[in-house]
Amino acid sequence: MTKNRSIIASFLAALVCAAATYRFYVSKKDHNPKLEGGIRFYENFRTQSEDPSAVAAQDVVGRWKDDLPGFWQGQLSAPANLRIIFRFTEKYGQVHAYSLDQGGGLIPATSARYFADMQELWVVFDSVLGVFQGKLLPEQNLIKGVWTQAGRNFDLNLKNGGDVPREFRFLNNKVVTGPSQQLQEMAGFWSGEVGLDNDEKELVIVYLNKVSNDLVEPMVFLPNEHEKNKNFPVGIRNFVLGGGDTVKIVLDDPLDSNNAIFEGKWDREEKTISGLISYDDTDDKDPLVLVWSQNYPASTHVLSIDVAEERRL
Fold it and tell me: So which domain of life are we looking at (predicted)?
């Protein structure tokens, strides 16, 4: 590990390994021309889903909010019969998937389109080279669809159960620890800059998403790495709010089995979390101050690394 290693390395390593960790179902025999054809299908589909001419009109955005937000559950028709949760947020194009039988880690959609008139949906997941195509059947509270990956198609029908699924609560409780009321107070965006090896600065945004009145889901955004799609979050391993308003965030680095760890203190009046990032294979510690905002932050909301250093001292 090099000195002053960027926290970004840990985040991006998770994305590099996501295809292996969260692949729904790809058997060894898929490494053949059929697989290559599947990848071509994915790449072509992804290009179509990002067609600039397909930018959602205001009425389509409204229909998305009316038709889709919430938790949709289904079971992939693969030999393993994997249980899947799709979570559609109210923000157009933002979809999060969770494979319950494969660890349940966050799999963010990197692009999505909704054809409101036909109530048809396309969702693309870069990290697993997967595509979901579905049709909303509102009278059945169902999205009837097909999951395509590695040249293979699997039926995937998603049912909206209304409330936050028990399975999602179980997953989230393995990640988040702390008093529910205080966690609710922290809901929102926490952003700051961390120094890189080349003396540049990288924006990091920790989002505590208020899922319900008693549940928050933590995730991380790296807008400098994903300028084209700022809706592309990364899941985290642990978020702990301890006594004395101490905060600890643990991020996996699956490429070399190391962790990036942020430890800080929440200042309720200043609405900041000031602390240090460390790594389990080096003694280096880098300062980071996260500043709260209700909405996705602009760079003007972010304290510089110099201010973070002053606060640490």
Answer: Eukaryota
Q: What CATH number labels 32-162?
A: 2.40.128
- Which pLDDT does position 289 carry in this prediction? 95
Domain residue ranges of the chain, discontinuous segments joined by +: 32-162, 167-312
Taking 70 as the pLDDT cut, the residues of the chain under it are 1-58, 79, 196-198, 225-231, 252-258, 281, 298-313
pLDDT in tens, 203-225: 889 999 999 888 999 998 877 76
| Residue 141 backbone class (left: φ over 0; alpha: ψ -120 to 50; beta: rest) | left
- For residue 242, the model assigns a pLDDT of 94
Q: What angle do CA 220, 223, 224 make, to 5 degrees?
A: 125
C-beta separation of 190 from 208 below 8 A: yes
How wide is the angle at C-alpha 116 spanned by C-alphas 111 and 122, nearest 5°? 30
Residue with tokens 């909704």: 114
Q: Which of 171, 275, 272 is nearest to 217 (CA)?
A: 171
Instruction: Evaluate whether 32-162 and 167-312 have a shared fold.
Output: yes
The structure tokens listed for 242 are 């301890």
Residue type, 72: W
Helices (H), 98-179: 166-175
Per-residue pLDDT reduced to its tens digit, 47-77:
555 544 445 566 788 899 999 999 999 998 7
The end-to-end CA distance of the chain, in Å, is 25
Rg of the chain on CA atoms, in Å: 20
Burial class (CB in 10 A: 0-12, 13-18, 19+), 99: buried
Q: May I ask the CATH architecture of the domain 167-312?
A: Beta Barrel (2.40)
